[in-house]
Amino acid sequence: MKQVILGIKFALSYFTVLPIHFGANDDLSQPKVLSNMLLTLPFIGLLLSALTLGIFVSFESLGWLAAIIASVLYMALYGFIHTEAIIDVTDAVYAKHSGKDPYAIIKEPGVGAMGVLYGVSFLLLKIAALSTLLMYHLFIPFMAIAAISRISLLVLIRTYEFRSSFVSQLKESLYFVPLTVLLLIYGALAWWFLSWPGLALFGLGIVSALLLSTLAKKTLGFINGDVLGMSLEGVEFILILAVLLACI
Predict the structure, then answer these.
(1) CA–CA separation, 147 and 42 (whole Å)
(2) DSSP 3-state assignment of 12?
(3) From CA 23, how far away is CA 194, in angstroms rounded?
(4) Can you tell me the distance from the alpha carbon of 229 to that of 84, in angstroms, rounded to the nearest whole number?
(5) Is the pLDDT reported for residue 95 higher than 90?
(6) What is the pLDDT of residues 194-207, one digit of tens each?
(7) What's the CA gap between 173 and 61, in Å, rounded?
(8) What is the largest CA-CA distance in the chain?
(9) I need a labelling partner for 69 at 20 to 30 A (CA). Which of 57, 104, 158, 230 fits?
């Protein structure tokens, strides 16, 4: 039970900005802790989306401003950790085009002009898309998208080999049976709340993540944690657009 709790706390501390404290003797490198951390990811999506909806509803009288505030805070709640990956991947792609080592560039703490331009452009697009989703009160689809985007990360971690010691360690702790059970549970929830559109959204999210990561691997020659973050952001944007096109 302690390892389950540690895994949940680890997920909350790593993938959110929520204040989480650990004991001096807590060992977060144990495989069971890492496994539980990964399996908590979809719940993290549900939690962050629920907090975002609470913020939007609290300020809804402000109209579009409430939607924009909630959209920005959604990304702020996970510390922009996935959004920042878009900048790193873009810089690495342009470095590869210039004949430089993309892995060396992606690991640099600084950012380039192209990375900033693409990062800001994506930020504007996602805020606009998510704000529209909130304004049309598509709350259940939003929560589904937040969970599906993180489930897609688990599929990617299980599928690929990574040029990252930490992600490779995570891959070793993610076993087939627990992942399959998790996919079935969330697939059933998608069906329960959204019927066939929910399953379609589920499938589109996983396929989009595989396509985005495959494209990144073909371009860069490797996959690491930044590619995972970029894939998550791409999946969320694609799914938000799909819901808006289907419902508006």
Answers:
(1) 4
(2) helix
(3) 41
(4) 8
(5) no
(6) 999 999 999 999 99
(7) 46
(8) 52
(9) 230
Amino acid at 225: G
Q: What's the predicted TM-score (pTM) here?
A: 0.95
- For 182-191, write each residue's pLDDT tens digit: 999 999 999 9
**CA 197 – CA 242 distance, rounded (Å):** 10
Amino acid at 53: L
Which tokens is 16 given?
Answer: 């959110």
> What is the rounded distance in angstroms from the CA atom of residue 133 to the CA atom of residue 125?
12
3-state helix, strand, coil in the chain (%, to 5): 80, 0, 20
For 64-133, the DSSP string reads HHHHHHHHHHHHHHTTTTTHHHHHHHHHHHHHHHTTS-HHHHHH-SS--HHHHHHHHHHHHHHHHHHHHH
CA 14 to CA 217: how far, in whole Å? Answer: 24
b/e burial code for range 113-124 (CB count within 10 A of at least 16 → b): eebeebbeebbe
Q: 158 near 179, Cβ under 8 Å?
A: yes
Are 227 and 90 contacting, i.e. CB atoms less than 8 angstroms apart? Answer: no
Q: Among candidates 25, 1, 40, 43, which has minimal Cα distance to 170?
A: 40
- How far apart are the C-alpha atoms of 239 and 237, rounded to whole Å? 6
Q: How big is the CA angle at 75 (ends 133 and 222), to the nearest 5 degrees?
A: 110
Instruction: Check the CA dihedral 128-48-178-198 and report its sign.
Output: negative
